[in-house]
Backbone:
């Protein structure tokens, strides 16, 4: 038993939307890498790898925040409706940027550990009882897991396969992210 597969129907608006999204992400990353060191008040310069982590992490956070604002903005002003129409593209790109952030984190902090990198990431900081130094890594992994699930199920095939109610319930998980 299977559902009918329909390929993605690309049009000029989707190409422009995706091109603008990618350009904005690239410009943000480049500007962050160029101007961020000027705002650091430290005695040693910050490593380029750490700057990359911060650039991709902050970019993913800002993208996720903007995705959550698109729905209310489209209800307030109709000019934001095209952003709402292609919001899934934005979400998939957010997942990719967050994955790149994770890749930089693992390759900088956990590449030389004796245990598996995923285990090292989740067990290196277990200070759950204090606010300072709280293990935020667990929240990041949970958020990335939600973003991956949403990116994988963002195609219209999954909307028809899972039924609109299940699909929408699943995609409301973005608010937990």
Residues:
């Amino acid at each position: 038993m299977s559902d009918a597969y329909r390929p993605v129907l690309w049009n000029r608006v989707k190409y422009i939307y995706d091109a603008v999204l990618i350009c904005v992400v690239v410009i943000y990353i480049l500007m962050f890498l160029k101007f961020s060191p000027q705002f650091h008040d430290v005695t040693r310069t910050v490593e380029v790898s750490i700057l990359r982590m911060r650039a991709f992490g902050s970019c993913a956070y800002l993208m996720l925040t903007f995705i959550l604002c698109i729905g209310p903005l489209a209800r307030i002003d109709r000019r934001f409706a095209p952003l709402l129409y292609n919001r899934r593209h934005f979400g998939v790109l957010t997942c990719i940027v967050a994955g790149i952030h994770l890749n930089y984190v693992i390759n900088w902090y956990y590449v030389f550990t004796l245990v598996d990198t995923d285990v090292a990431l989740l067990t290196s900081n277990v200070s759950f009882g204090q606010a300072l130094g709280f293990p935020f890594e667990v929240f990041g992994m949970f958020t990335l897991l939600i973003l991956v699930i949403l990116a994988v199920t963002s195609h219209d095939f999954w909307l028809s396969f899972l039924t609109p109610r299940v699909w929408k319930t699943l995609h409301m998980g973005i608010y937990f992210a």
